[in-house]
Amino acid sequence: MRFTLKKQERLKSKKLLAQLFERGNSLTQFPLRLIYLKVEHASNYPVQVAFSVPKRKFKRAVDRNRIKRLMRESYRQHKHILYKNLEDKYILMCIYTDEKEHKYVDIEEKIILLLKKFIKKIN
């Protein structure tokens, strides 16, 4: 498996995002929240994912973008955890909930725990 995050793996559809927030379930592993929904999307990938950092907690776009970049990178490095355990297709939204920025190591650890918790929940 290649450790890439292609455009088709990112969740961009407004319709799917609306469905996710309307009907999705969530898991929390502080400082992250994962909202997920089983869907039938046309992507070749089993998971489409989006990342979000609230403007209310981080006023400067530079800070929000840095945290999103850290979350994307740790997801990209560890998405194999999901891919080897999923049969159905899911859409995911990973939201940063803390008011202060954490180091990459902390975010990576929480992403791994969150992905494992998600796999355990759906199986």
Overview of the molecule:
- The chain has helices at residues 14-23, 61-78, 80-83, 104-122; strands at residues 25-29, 32-38, 47-52, 90-96.
- The protein has 123 residues and is an alpha+beta fold.
- It has a single domain (7-122), classed as 2-Layer Sandwich (Ribosomal Protein S5, domain 2).
- It starts with 13 loop residues before the first helix and ends with a helix.
- The mean pLDDT is 93.
Describe, in short, the structure shown.
With 123 residues, the chain is of the alpha+beta class. The protein has 4 helices and 4 strands, in the order H-E-E-E-H-H-E-H. Helix 2 (61-78) crosses helix 4.
CATH topology: Ribosomal Protein S5, domain 2
Total number of beta strands: 4
Outline: globular
Structural class: alpha+beta
Average pLDDT rating: 93
Sheet-strand content, in percent, reads 15-25%
Radius of gyration: 14 Å
Ends apart, CA distance between termini? 22 Å
Low-confidence stretches: none
CATH architecture: 2-Layer Sandwich
What characterizes the major β-sheet?
Answer: 4 strands, mixed
What kind of assembly state do the chains in view correspond to?
Answer: single chain
- Spatial ordering of strands, largest sheet: 1-2-4-3
- Taken in chain order, the helices and strands follow as HEEEHHEH
By CATH reckoning, the class would read Alpha Beta
Structure annotation, total helices: 4
